[in-house]
Amino acid sequence: MSHDDFPTDDPAVVTCGLPYANGDLHIGHLRTYVGGDVYSRALERLGQETALVSGSDMHGTPVAVNAEREGVTPEEFALDWHEQYAVTFPKFNVEFDNYGHTHDETNTELTQEFVRSWIDEGLVYEKEIPVAWDTAEEIPLPDRYVEGTCPYCGEHARGDECDEGCGRHLEPGEIESPVSTITGNPAEYRDRTHKFLNVSEFSDYLSGFLDRLEGTANARNQPREWIEDGLRDWCITRDMDWGVDYPDEERSDLVLYVWVDAPVEYVASTKQYSDRVGADVFDWEAAWKATETPDDPTEPATGGGELVHVIGRDIIQHHTIFWPAMLRGAGYAEPRAVMASGFVTLGGKGFSTSRDRAVWADEYLDEGFHPDPLRYYLATNGGFQQDVDFSWEKFRDRVNSELVGTVGNFLYRSLLFAHRNYDEAPIADATSHEVTERIDEAITAFDAAVNDYSVRALGDVTTTLARFGNEYIQHNEPWNLVDEDPEEAAQVIHDCVAIAKAIAVLFEPIAPEKSERLWAQLGETGSVHEATVEAAREGPTGELSEPTELFEQIEDDRVEALNEKLESRVAEAEADGEGDEDESGANDESDDDATDTDMADIEPLSDDRISFDQFQDLDIRVGRIEEATGIDGADDLLKLRVDLGAETRTIVAGLKQLHDADDLPGTTVVVLANMEKAELFGVESNGMVLAAGEEADLLTTHEDAEPGTTVK
């Protein structure tokens, strides 16, 4: 692995968190998979050798519980969902190079090899621990067979996770007041002997790993708290029949914890891809295996490729603590980057599968919508680590304004004019200097987006270029130049077709099917999926065909009908007595998702009001962060130097765990300037930076307001 800018000489593997084989996919689940597919395609446009892999998570107690309810075996239950996912993803142009599952032979063998490596390295030990027990059935209760109270925050918790409170990973025996989900009876704890991975041994290594890790800031910063609090060793076995057997004949009563075999599927899926296409096309060992592990625990192993994990933020801990330790202990390379997405809400509320309050993946397609507009919406509506709210109204507005009004409008008017007035391209001898510069700028922005791990910026490249194209054609009015100056008219139209070709290449990661159709309209040879960014610089070469409009307008009455259908479904589900609690659909390896909540943690609006005069007393200003540094002894605080126009102030803000300090300079923020001064860890704070929610989403301005501008 290198940390050089992409493209590099090392093979890249992009993985998407494994969907849990436990229910239908809705569009909230698709965000991670669309994001992974977009990023993988963008790497390929840069010329990076890349494989996109994932698979279905088949094991764990939720599968066993639901299989039992349906009267089928866990394997039958999980395989049915796996096969549905394998069909659904391509419908949204998510094209995995390999999509496997955790119950196949490749993953089973590799998982057991990992564990044997840890045993050989002395990293696994045995310990007696309390395990929840159903006294009525006289059986142990692994993970999601037990629920109760989180010992850390007091909220409801299930199995291995505090899913309604602090989100913390829970070890067996930690849940207080345990109850069996099988019988509903109180459970009791009994001592059982289990196997542990000595994760605490990797504390120094993991600190260094997080310093090197690229990707989204939440993936780098959140895990530091867990290391600083002291790493606990990890129970890697469970008392159940469904899963990968622990590789020790003397402990044939144990299977491996689902979070052991699930991430190994990334490796197994890559291996299956190599086995299918040949190591000369893609070598899985070159991508995953380290060539040398240094004695210094803080240093990375040498060798391996560019490993990028695209996940939901609810499984950051597994991918930045457990998984790197697993890889290190088995002699594998470490991930280069982790991109952790925010959640998707629906009209400001969470998806609720039990209330049928969701836009299901198949439903979206059955309504006749093309997958590419949804890919665009999910990819560009906010930064990747921010939460995204979907509503049919917002979807309509983005499609009509940006895809139809900006991108589609430019492409159709340019290519239609070119087709009607010229036989073939190139129409002029070469693309003008002005347009060449703009295309070069777009390619530079595309390159920067890939290396900044910004899926949104990849989409913005196209809309920005199309917006310039609309201005260019409107300013030059080639329809008037055809008679007045036919040579200049030919140049303008040639330039517009050149912009259209660049859009086809640069928009391919976001809208692959529409880009391929545009490529055909341009008369270009081969497939746009094989074109690199250099093709965007080459200018038009093909014979133009009569264009058709790429994107369709969404009418208001269509949105009204879709909302009525959704509301009717929810009402029917509630009338049937469903919806007492939210259930998970398929998701990243954890079987629950913050998108599957009813957003109960949103505070109600206050009834206490302030007068306009009181509001006028608040001095709220636009500021720009100039510097951001940590404060000695403060885990959560950053010292910011913020330009407020008239002066630059020092402000202390609790952003350290949620934002990368190196990314903050240049960020426009909103500041309460007449906040009382306060001293924190020896630093005087003179103001307050405003942010929203637990993720500290920094408030900013839509346009380029100057520092010092008053917020009214």
TrEMBL record:
<dbReference type="GO" id="GO:0017101">
    <property type="term" value="C:aminoacyl-tRNA synthetase multienzyme complex"/>
</dbReference>
<keyword id="KW-0067">ATP-binding</keyword>
<comment type="function">
    <text>Is required not only for elongation of protein synthesis but also for the initiation of all mRNA translation through initiator tRNA(fMet) aminoacylation.</text>
</comment>
<keyword id="KW-0862">Zinc</keyword>
<keyword id="KW-0436">Ligase</keyword>
<dbReference type="InterPro" id="IPR041872">
    <property type="entry name" value="Anticodon_Met"/>
</dbReference>
<dbReference type="InterPro" id="IPR014758">
    <property type="entry name" value="Met-tRNA_synth"/>
</dbReference>
<feature type="binding site">
    <location>
        <position position="150"/>
    </location>
    <ligand>
        <name>Zn(2+)</name>
    </ligand>
</feature>
<keyword id="KW-0030">Aminoacyl-tRNA synthetase</keyword>
<keyword id="KW-0479">Metal-binding</keyword>
<dbReference type="InterPro" id="IPR004495">
    <property type="entry name" value="Met-tRNA-synth_bsu_C"/>
</dbReference>
<dbReference type="InterPro" id="IPR014729">
    <property type="entry name" value="Rossmann-like_a/b/a_fold"/>
</dbReference>
<feature type="binding site">
    <location>
        <position position="162"/>
    </location>
    <ligand>
        <name>Zn(2+)</name>
    </ligand>
</feature>
<dbReference type="GO" id="GO:0006431">
    <property type="term" value="P:methionyl-tRNA aminoacylation"/>
</dbReference>
<dbReference type="InterPro" id="IPR009080">
    <property type="entry name" value="tRNAsynth_Ia_anticodon-bd"/>
</dbReference>
<keyword id="KW-0648">Protein biosynthesis</keyword>
<comment type="subunit">
    <text>Homodimer.</text>
</comment>
<feature type="binding site">
    <location>
        <position position="153"/>
    </location>
    <ligand>
        <name>Zn(2+)</name>
    </ligand>
</feature>
<dbReference type="Pfam" id="PF01588">
    <property type="entry name" value="tRNA_bind"/>
</dbReference>
<feature type="region of interest" description="Disordered">
    <location>
        <begin position="568"/>
        <end position="607"/>
    </location>
</feature>
<keyword id="KW-0820">tRNA-binding</keyword>
<feature type="short sequence motif" description="'HIGH' region">
    <location>
        <begin position="19"/>
        <end position="29"/>
    </location>
</feature>
<dbReference type="GO" id="GO:0005829">
    <property type="term" value="C:cytosol"/>
</dbReference>
<feature type="binding site">
    <location>
        <position position="353"/>
    </location>
    <ligand>
        <name>ATP</name>
    </ligand>
</feature>
<keyword id="KW-0963">Cytoplasm</keyword>
<comment type="similarity">
    <text>Belongs to the class-I aminoacyl-tRNA synthetase family. MetG type 1 subfamily.</text>
</comment>
<keyword id="KW-0547">Nucleotide-binding</keyword>
<dbReference type="GO" id="GO:0005524">
    <property type="term" value="F:ATP binding"/>
</dbReference>
<dbReference type="InterPro" id="IPR023458">
    <property type="entry name" value="Met-tRNA_ligase_1"/>
</dbReference>
<dbReference type="Pfam" id="PF09334">
    <property type="entry name" value="tRNA-synt_1g"/>
</dbReference>
<dbReference type="InterPro" id="IPR002547">
    <property type="entry name" value="tRNA-bd_dom"/>
</dbReference>
<feature type="compositionally biased region" description="Acidic residues">
    <location>
        <begin position="573"/>
        <end position="605"/>
    </location>
</feature>
<dbReference type="InterPro" id="IPR015413">
    <property type="entry name" value="Methionyl/Leucyl_tRNA_Synth"/>
</dbReference>
<dbReference type="InterPro" id="IPR029038">
    <property type="entry name" value="MetRS_Zn"/>
</dbReference>
<dbReference type="GO" id="GO:0000049">
    <property type="term" value="F:tRNA binding"/>
</dbReference>
<dbReference type="InterPro" id="IPR001412">
    <property type="entry name" value="aa-tRNA-synth_I_CS"/>
</dbReference>
<protein>
    <recommendedName>
        <fullName>Methionine--tRNA ligase</fullName>
        <ecNumber>6.1.1.10</ecNumber>
    </recommendedName>
</protein>
<dbReference type="InterPro" id="IPR012340">
    <property type="entry name" value="NA-bd_OB-fold"/>
</dbReference>
<dbReference type="Pfam" id="PF19303">
    <property type="entry name" value="Anticodon_3"/>
</dbReference>
<feature type="binding site">
    <location>
        <position position="166"/>
    </location>
    <ligand>
        <name>Zn(2+)</name>
    </ligand>
</feature>
<dbReference type="GO" id="GO:0046872">
    <property type="term" value="F:metal ion binding"/>
</dbReference>
<dbReference type="InterPro" id="IPR033911">
    <property type="entry name" value="MetRS_core"/>
</dbReference>
